[in-house]
TrEMBL record:
<keyword id="KW-0597">Phosphoprotein</keyword>
<dbReference type="Pfam" id="PF00072">
    <property type="entry name" value="Response_reg"/>
</dbReference>
<dbReference type="InterPro" id="IPR011006">
    <property type="entry name" value="CheY-like_superfamily"/>
</dbReference>
<dbReference type="GO" id="GO:0000160">
    <property type="term" value="P:phosphorelay signal transduction system"/>
</dbReference>
<feature type="domain" description="Response regulatory">
    <location>
        <begin position="1"/>
        <end position="105"/>
    </location>
</feature>
<dbReference type="InterPro" id="IPR050595">
    <property type="entry name" value="Bact_response_regulator"/>
</dbReference>
<protein>
    <submittedName>
        <fullName>Response regulator</fullName>
    </submittedName>
</protein>
<dbReference type="InterPro" id="IPR001789">
    <property type="entry name" value="Sig_transdc_resp-reg_receiver"/>
</dbReference>
Length: 107
């Protein structure tokens, strides 16, 4: 559903079904922005961030994380300190996400 909204706003999307697939896509392809769910199955968004961080690759990507879980502002701020570009909480407002995508892509 999110993909449909983003494509209606003229964004091209590459979809991963889990964190391992997502990490592989991130490493193999260049994207303007990576939209990363922190609560993915098998290999969550935190693990993806840690892997990129461990390989000094986090700085090479503009990443917006999103989550529906109960996450504190301090935890979100820590992710930004580590190199995540931005974050958004679920439920996602598509207009806010669209604005963040445009803003992040233009950094």
């Amino acid at each position: 559903m999110l993909t449909t909204f983003l494509e209606l706003k003229d964004h091209k999307c590459t979809i991963a079904n889990d964190g391992k697939e997502g990490l592989s896509i991130i490493k193999e392809n260049r994207h303007d922005v990576v939209l990363l769910d922190l609560a993915m199955p098998e290999f969550d968004g935190y693990s993806v961030i840690k892997d990129l961080e461990d390989n000094n690759a986090l700085k090479d990507h503009k990443i917006i994380v999103f989550t529906a879980s109960t996450i504190t502002q301090d935890e979100l701020d820590e992710l930004v300190t580590r190199g995540v570009t931005s974050y958004i909480l679920k439920p996602i407002d598509i207009d806010i996400l669209h604005s963040k995508l445009i803003e992040t892509a233009n950094l």
